[in-house]
Amino acid sequence: MRRTDSRAGGTRAWLAACAALLALMTASARAERGAVAEPARPFPELGRLIGTTGVTSLEGAGGGGLVPWALITGYGSRDGFGANLHATGVRTTDFSLGATGIGLGIADRLELSYQHQWFDTRAAGARLGLGRGYTFEQDIFGAKLRLFGDVVADQDRWWPQVSVGVQHKVSADRDVVRAVGARDAAGTDFYVAATRLFLDARLLVNGTLRLTRANQFGLLGHGGDGHDGYSLQPELSAAVMVSRRVALGGEFRARPDNLRFASEGRSFSAFAAWFAGHHLSATLAYVDLGKIANQGRQSGVYLSLQVGF
Fold it and tell me: CA 79, 63, 302, 10: dihedral to nearest 10 degrees?
């Protein structure tokens, strides 16, 4: 009984935190609409527009909630560096995921990131034969390099910002992921991303192509008894700046289906991102992660906080 009460209390606290964040976003947008409009402009000392670092994606890279963008994290200019610390929580119908990590942007050219994830199976763990509350863990080491282009569109700059990246994922549950059919407990994703911000329309669009063998974002290893090779998966994002500090958008992410014991599909999100300044941002989203481990479609709430410079 104590365990059930604790879980219910945790759910109430989670929902209260999401409601408070949503209220802050709404108040910020209303305050800006009531104020004298001023054009978006770079921080004088940093040379980066608010929001042009993105937030922190599910795997630690700068971008949206589900998808890495071509943007380099941190508000450092091309003559400096920026960094962030981030924490993310996702609660779906049957599972919970938490993550913490750090990102470093160097000269608006190179991004390095590290993230640790833990995936709580809650009651579904018993149904899967793992034991109630069994927790998968993995470490993700990321790097992203901006190749060319500029995120801000104008008549003299037609190309989007284009970056390439890698994410090396290492599962702490080698025996379990191999038991469910995964070929490897560690693996590397490769991706290319193109991002463009249209200031007049206050619209940001991003397209990412990922070469991957990851099962359930790498939490269930890489490759499988159904399919073991790399596959190319598309990822898309779009966001509208409803004020200088609040963005609304959505994301789509395709994923490979490698394991025979459980099919894997696509993920979607609808998000609101709040940029309190260049030191703090927060993202609140509804996510649909598709089918996970034969437990049906998993949808729920995503909350991410980022602090940095």
Answer: -30
